[in-house]
Design goal:
- The chain has 378 residues and is of the alpha/beta class.
- Helix 9 links the parallel strand 7 and strand 8.
- Helix 6 packs parallel to helix 7, helix 8 packs parallel to helix 9 and helix 9 crosses helix 10.
- The radius of gyration is 25 Å and the shape is elongated.
- The site of manganese (II) ion has 6 residues, from loops.
C-alpha cells in the first residue's frame, strides 16, 4: 500500500479534448482549468502546443493564471513539438514516443535501438529549455516488458522525471497492470504515471491497480472523457483511492458535480444518468425495499455518502415504490395519508410510471390525490 499521496494529473484538457468531435474554446479551457485547480487537482495536462497558434495562446493564458497546479503540455518526441511546448509557460512536458514493436515499426518506420537513442537526446534538449520531462510510453501495454525496462533506464539516466505508462488501446486488466507496473517500480526511481483507457470498461480499475503496484501519478479525465471509450474518470479514481485504500489525493469531491456539468457542456458529451458518482440518477432510489431501508437508516443502503461528492439522496416514486415512500412524498406536500390512502395512490402512481416512464411531479401527485379522494380536496 503506497504511503505517499497520489498525484492526480488530470488530462481533460488534452486527452479529454482529443475525443472525436470534442473541441473546447479558449474560455472553456480556462474555466475548466480554474475549476480543477479550485477542487485541489494538483497537476493538469492542458493541451498540445504544436497543434496551432490558438492552442499555444490558450495554454499560455492558463499558465499566466498562476493556478496552484503544476501544468503539463503534450508533444511528440521531436523538435517542432518540443519548441512549441517550451514557448507556452508550462512546467513539464510529456514527450510521447511509441514503445510497442508494432508502432515503432509501422508508425515510425524505426526500430527499438532508435527509440533508446532518441530518448536521452530529447530529455537533454527539454531540460536545457528549463522543462521537466515525462517520457510518454505510447502503447506501453503492447510493448515488450524487457524493452520497457531499458526505456525507463535510459529515461532516468538522461534526467527525465517521469515515465507515463500508456495503455493507449485500453487492453490491460487490473492483474496484468499490477504485474507490469510492479516490475517497472522495482527497476526505476522515476515517477510512474498510469494512463488508462476504457475500451473494456477497466480504466479506473487499471488505474487503481497501478497505484497499488507503485505508480505515483495517475492520468484522469472529468466524466471519463477521452478517445473512444474514454480515460479513467477523475471522480471514480479519486473516490476509489479514498474509499478502497484510504489513499488521499487532496481533491475535494464536493466540486465534482459542478466540474462534471462544466465539462459535459463544453464537450457536448452529456453524462449518462447512471455514470458513477456524477450521473443524475446514482443517488436516486425508487425500490420500495431500498427506500424503506433508507428511511429507517441511511447506512442500510448507502455505500458512498453523497455529501462527499456534493450530492444528496433523492427518493423517486415509481412502479417499484412502496407505501412508505408515498406517505413521505405526500407529507412533503403537506398531505398526511393513512396507510389505506397511500395504497390506493400507489396503484395510481404505478399506472403513471408505466405509461410515462417518468416520476410523477408534485402537481401530478396533487392531481392523483384529488381524483382519488375528491371529498378531502379543498
Ligand atoms: Mn490516451
Amino acid at each position: 500500500m503506497p504511503d505517499t499521496k497520489i498525484i492526480v494529473n488530470d488530462t481533460t484538457l488534452r486527452d479529454g479534448e482529443q475525443t472525436a468531435g470534442v473541441a473546447f474554446s479558449a474560455e472553456e479551457k480556462i474555466a475548466i482549468a480554474r475549476a480543477l485547480a479550485n477542487a485541489g487537482v494538483p497537476e493538469m495536462e492542458i493541451g498540445i502546443p504544436v497543434m496551432c497558434e490558438e492552442e499555444r495562446e490558450t495554454i499560455l493564458a492558463i499558465a499566466t493564471l498562476g493556478l496552484p497546479a503544476s501544468l503539463m503540455a503534450w508533444g511528440r518526441m521531436c523538435d517542432t513539438d518540443l519548441d512549441a511546448a517550451a514557448s507556452c509557460g508550462v512546467h513539464i512536458v510529456n514527450l510521447s514516443i511509441p514503445v510497442s514493436d508494432i508502432q515503432i515499426r509501422h508508425k515510425l518506420g524505426r526500430d527499438r535501438e532508435w527509440v533508446l537513442e532518441t530518448i536521452p537526446c530529447f530529455v537533454k534538449r527539454a531540460l536545457d529549455r528549463g522543462l521537466d520531462v515525462s517520457i510518454g510510453g505510447e502503447d506501453a501495454s503492447r510493448a515488450d516488458q524487457d524493452f520497457l525496462l531499458r526505456v525507463v533506464e535510459q529515461a532516468q539516466a538522461a534526467g527525465a522525471r517521469r515515465f507515463r505508462f500508456a495503455d493507449t488501446l485500453g487492453l490491460l486488466d487490473p492483474f496484468s497492470t499490477y504485474k507490469r507496473i510492479s516490475q517497472l517500480r522495482d527497476a526505476t526511481d522515476l515517477e510512474i504515471e498510469m494512463h488508462a483507457h476504457n475500451d473494456l470498461g477497466l480504466a479506473t480499475a487499471n488505474t487503481l491497480a497501478a497505484v497499488l503496484a507503485g505508480a505515483s501519478h495517475i492520468n484522469t479525465t472529468v466524466n471519463g472523457l477521452g478517445e473512444r471509450a474514454g480515460n479513467a474518470a477523475l471522480e471514480e479514481s479519486v473516490m476509489g483511492l479514498h474509499h478502497l485504500y484510504g489513499i488521499e489525493t487532496g481533491i475535494d469531491g464536493r466540486h465534482f458535480p459542478d466540474i462534471s456539468r462544466l465539462v459535459a457542456l463544453a464537450s457536448g458529451r452529456p453524462v449518462p444518468v447512471n455514470k458513477s458518482i456524477v450521473g443524475e440518477s446514482v443517488f436516486t432510489h425508487e425500490s420500495g425495499i431500498h427506500v424503506d431501508g433508507l428511511l429507517k437508516n441511511l447506512l442500510n443502503y448507502q455505500g458512498v455518502d453523497p455529501e462527499e461528492v456534493g450530492r444528496e439522496h433523492r427518493l423517486m416514486l415509481g412502479k417499484h415504490s412502496g407505501s412508505k415512500a408515498v406517505m413521505q412524498a405526500y407529507a412533503g406536500l403537506g398531505i398526511l395519508l393513512s396507510g389505506l390512502e397511500a395504497k390506493a395512490l400507489l396503484a395510481r402512481i404505478r399506472d403513471h410510471a408505466v405509461a410515462t416512464k417518468r416520476a410523477p411531479s408534485a402537481n401530478d401527485l396533487k392531481r392523483f390525490y384529488l381524483e382519488a379522494m375528491p371529498c378531502r380536496g379543498s
